[in-house]
């Protein structure tokens, strides 16, 4: 609710730009949709992993209930999926209210999964919109139609680029704290998870625990990778537009000094990149994340060996 006005402005602006580019010829439409399938696949895989992990958490409790109902007995002999019965300021009664706590934690877990899927995959969709618009602008600049006036095309591209910069700033303001939180928390959680799994003897390994740990680690890796990869898509599209502008025919066009100044500013600007405060959101950030996780794991392992 705090940034509702900003997001309303963002959606209105980016949707208008996307629709204006989509109304072009079939080649532009094909170019705009070319980057959508891989982004969709990543979103589906990420959502399936999260839902599978949620089912893994709640399945033992509901299996015990259904097994009891099969024998005409409503049992409470199961562990709550999230809090394990210890996350409340009161003692969970061994009665009907125990089932109510299970229902509450199931709904809470489901809502958390839906919010995570929605927020994380929305960033990929926003990156796709940016990349599609930038690719369409690049195609118009490098493949001008004989019936089009290149000066008008360039003037329109400059105006659209200014709007995209505004949308980029809004998106960065919204997602910078989210990306930074995921990078830091995921590195700490994965480091602790790997250390915990590697410290357990093989005789104490349980298949369910191993599957849950592997699924959780995969989700965290995929979450970080998706943010970095989507940020890289946006950066590459912005760099591609700058190259198209550089090799275009703008210097042969009759443009006033204001448009020429905007063109020079576009060429001098860095690629359109999303920053999480001090770091750019790209594959380099994901590489640093993996290196940090592995480094802290070996540090914890060496400290544990010394204590033993």
TrEMBL record:
Topology of the protein relative to the lipid bilayer: Multi-pass membrane protein
Q: Name one Pfam family in it.
A: 7tm_6
Compartment(s):
Cell membrane
Q: Which residues cross the membrane?
A: 41-62, 109-128, 174-195, 207-229, 274-299
Chief localisation class:
membrane
Q: Which GO terms describe its biological process?
A: signal transduction
Record's superkingdom?
Eukaryota
Quote the cellular component terms of the Gene Ontology held in the record: plasma membrane
UniProt keyword annotations, A-Z: Cell membrane, Membrane, Olfaction, Receptor, Sensory transduction, Transducer, Transmembrane, Transmembrane helix
Molecular function, one GO term: olfactory receptor activity
Region forming the signal peptide: none
What protein name does the entry list? Answer: Odorant receptor
Record organism: Cardiocondyla obscurior
């Amino acid at each position: 609710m705090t940034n509702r006005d900003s997001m309303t402005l963002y959606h209105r602006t980016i949707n208008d730009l996307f629709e204006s580019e989509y109304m072009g010829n079939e080649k532009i439409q094909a170019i705009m949709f070319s980057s959508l399938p891989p982004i969709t696949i990543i979103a589906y895989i990420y959502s399936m992993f999260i839902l599978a992990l949620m089912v893994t958490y709640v399945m033992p409790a509901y299996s015990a209930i259904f097994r009891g109902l099969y024998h005409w007995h409503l049992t409470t002999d199961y562990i709550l999926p999230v809090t394990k019965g210890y996350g409340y300021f009161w003692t969970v009664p061994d009665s009907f209210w125990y089932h109510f706590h299970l229902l509450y934690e199931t709904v809470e877990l489901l809502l958390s999964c839906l919010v995570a899927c929605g927020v994380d995959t929305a960033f990929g969709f926003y990156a796709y919109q940016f990349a599609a618009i930038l690719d369409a602008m690049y195609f118009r600049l490098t493949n001008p139609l004989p019936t089009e006036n290149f000066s008008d095309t360039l003037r329109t591209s400059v105006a659209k680029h200014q709007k995209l910069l505004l949308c980029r700033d809004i998106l960065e303001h919204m997602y910078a704290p989210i990306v930074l939180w995921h990078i830091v928390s995921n590195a700490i959680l994965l480091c602790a998870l790997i250390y915990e799994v590697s410290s357990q003897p093989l005789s104490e390994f349980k298949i369910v625990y191993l599957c849950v740990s592997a699924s959780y680690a995969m989700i965290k890796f995929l979450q970080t990778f998706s943010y970095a990869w989507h940020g890289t898509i946006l950066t590459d599209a912005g760099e591609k537009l700058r190259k198209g502008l550089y090799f275009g025919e703008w210097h042969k066009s009759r443009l006033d000094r204001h448009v020429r100044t905007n063109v020079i500013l576009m060429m001098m600007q860095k690629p359109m990149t999303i920053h999480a405060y001090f770091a750019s959101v790209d594959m380099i950030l994901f590489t640093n994340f993996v290196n940090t996780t592995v480094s802290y794991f070996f540090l914890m392992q060496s400290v544990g060996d010394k204590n033993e």
